[in-house]
Amino acid sequence: MVFPFKSVEDFKIGLTEEHELFRKSVREFVEREVMPRWREIEESNRIQPEIFKAMAEQGLTGVGIPEEYGGQGGGQLMTAIAMEEIARAVPSLAVAIGVNHLFAVPVLEFGTEELKKKYVTPIARGERRGAHANTEPSGGSDVAGIQSRAVKENDHYIINGRKVFISAAGEADYLLVSARTSPPQEGKRWWGITTFVVERDWPGVKIGQQFRVIGMRGEQPYEVVLDNVKVPAENVVGKENEGFKVVVTTYDHTRIGIAAQAVGIAQAAFEKAVNYALQRELFGQRIVNFEMIVEKLADMYIRLEASRLLTYWAASLADQGRPEYTIAASLAKTFASESAEWIARQAVQIHGGYGVDFETGLERYLRDAIITTIYEGTNEVQRLTIVKEMLRQAFGLRI
Question: Known catalytic residue: 376?
Answer without folding.
Answer: yes
